[in-house]
Amino acid sequence: xxxxxxxRDDDGVLERRFTLGEIxxxxxxxxxASPSAPVPLILLGLPPLGLDTMYPRLVARAQQAAADxxxxxxIELPGSGARPRWAAADEARAELRRVxxxxxxxxxxxxxxxxxxxxxxxxxxxxxxxxxVLSLPEIxxxxxxxxxxxxxxIRLALxxxxxxxxxxxxxxFVPRVMFEEARRVTIPLHVxxxxxxxxNDRQAALDLFDAFGSAEKSLLANMGGxxxxxxxxxxAAAGFFARHLR
Length: 246
Description:
The chain has 246 residues and is α/β, with parallel strands linked by helices. The protein has a single domain, classed as Alpha/Beta hydrolase fold, catalytic domain (Rossmann fold), CATH 3.40.50. It has 7 helices and 9 strands. A 9-stranded mixed β-sheet has the order 1-2-3-5-4-6-7-8-9, with helices on both faces. The radius of gyration is 17 Å and the shape is globular. The protein starts with a strand and ends with a helix. The mean pLDDT is 92.
């Protein structure tokens, strides 16, 4: 983990940009964090749109986490942003755009090609980033995962024992095999669903929520489209992590 820049905002939150091999990332820590008082960590998932594109939304989520006493970290997904292009992923996304523009159904084969290779590549990178961030003396866990491509969140919740709670955003295509993995997830979950999300299969999102094996799981559904998430939804997610990471 190589720190390439750092700055502290008016609220005392320290933002550090880093690289982990070829992977860019950002780490935010509250001013209260210290080796004598290490803080829990929230991993901030993001869609494959690039760190720079998503930065305004990521920093807002990180500032909320810091206000609650948590560090937050994120990394660039494979094939996104400044990372090398990934031809297979680009082809799958182009085919998805064509299918949706034509009003055709999005088949299982396309969903698998779009999502499963991304999950297989991204999850080990998230685990490596988690290793690096938790090596810092001012960050001690426990760890939560928030947002992002929901299939990445499912896999991380299943295979990464350091993650004790996850807040997931319904709204991305989910391969059928991920439903089987969801049945084996047992950590507490908080799932956000925008009821009128134009890019989301609402029934599939409800079926996925039903599939999760967690004894504690909640679904917060709000009217509105993908970008119409109300502030109250953020407050509910913050409360979820406060209960499980403190």
